[in-house]
What we know:
The protein has 429 residues and is α/β, with parallel strands linked by helices.
Amino acid sequence: MRYSRRGIVALGLAAALFALPACSSSANDDGGGSSGSSDSEVEVFSWWAGPGEKEGLDAMIADFTKKNSGIKFNNAAVAGGAGTNAKTVLATRLQAKNPPDSYQVHAGLELASDIQAGYVEDITYLYDQQGWKEKFPKGLIDAITVDGKIYSVPVNIHRSNLLWFNPATLQKAGIAAAPKTWDEFLTQAATLKSKNITALSIGPGWTQEHLLENVLLGELGTDKYTGLWNGSTDWKSAEVTAALTKYTKILGFSDLKSAAADWQPALDKVVDGTAAYNVMGDWADGYLKGAKALEFKTGYDVVATPGSEGVYNFLSDSFTLPVGAPHKGAAEKWLVECGSTEGQDAFNPQKGSVPARTDADKSKYTGYLAAALAEWQNPSTKIVGSLAHGVVANNAFKGEIDTALQIFVQDSNVAKFADAVAKAYAANK
Ligand code: GAL
């Protein structure tokens, strides 16, 4: 089955589509499918164990525990940015039919293989019970729906295409403003190098992919970027070749040879002024204002990655009900928490994301997040989906891109990389 034809295809869309609630029925049923069991514990699996991620999860757990005092919360988070470690552990557990009660997965094509493998329950009944079809944007519901069935509960919307910096470092280097194009970035990078400042800090492989998607977005624009994931943009075309060549130049001004072990230490280099910029999703806001206790605008600042102003390269964290969850009743209560306004408004202000629900309490979103929420809800904002965080490529296609990219960042062979990705698309579409 070509999941992408039936599930998320809402990419390269105006935000208006995301802003509208799904127009399906609001009929409530009596919760058929709920086990109704009074489970006394719940095991929730995620990768939110590190600074900047743990705080948001803890806030939602606190709200859950307040409402469900009889349920012991078993936090099974496995540390490591973008879930690289967690996903390996989870795959082993799912294969062994030893699932947690709920696990984190990105909305979009990352879910497809779990649905096909029969690992996750259809939870449309929870949407009917809770009236959620009217509370989440239609485009987001599409991203978690296959053949009319909904498989997870989105808790947030993150933005991938962001360039973080320390205003004091730019000032010290005599740079008036963050770059608006990748060419301008390269010009600034040469200046920064002459002053012994790393232009761009980088971390492990997934952060290199996160950079890649945003160089492609900035250089190709939204339509052609989206075409990379639906077959309408040729990976071997002259313009993609040029964008990939630019990526190698940008990476040449990074600290790839001494890359940080994860996204937080890569951002630390921006904080301490040894690096000028870092491309990262807005979980960086949670980290910088939380663990680092910095003030937005003075201690840290952010712009859209070069060439992507007015675009939201989105991803969404969601939670599932695995088939065979040992504590199904408690898991359903956790999912209700994830989908609630209180849960989302406890989690997102700390996590550095905006709520997935359209009716959250705006006053809770300040600093960077006030601007993010306004941009997300602005009907003229264009929306595309993230590669590195599970929206636009299924796991098989993404896995082959991950492998090819490991080689590409070392050998800078554009033609070889483009050929590998084009073949991977054809094999896995
Ligand atoms: C993403 C995830 C975010 C954040 C980030 C860094 O994949 O969606 O919520 O956790 O990884 O770990």
